[in-house]
Design brief:
single chain; 64 residues; mainly alpha; 3 helices; 80% helix; Small membrane protein
């Protein structure tokens, strides 16, 4: 669960930076949030969750 919260915070920071620095309009950011809510309740949500979990595990396994 801590990974999910961290990912949400990271994505929120990225969206805020895009709104401020890259000229992303607030309406576009809101549409992205709504898309996320609809994806979370769709049948593709478990696949997206598995994908992000696998990518996070791969990143965690990298030795620097």
């Amino acid at each position: 669960m801590a990974l999910s919260i961290s990912l949400v915070v990271l994505l929120l920071i990225i969206v805020v930076m895009l709104v401020q620095k890259a000229g992303l309009k607030s309406g576009h950011a809101l549409l992205c949030v709504l898309l996320g809510f609809y994806l979370a309740s769709s049948s593709i949500a478990p696949t997206i969750d598995d994908l992000t979990t696998n990518v996070a595990n791969m990143i965690g396994d990298v030795d620097l």
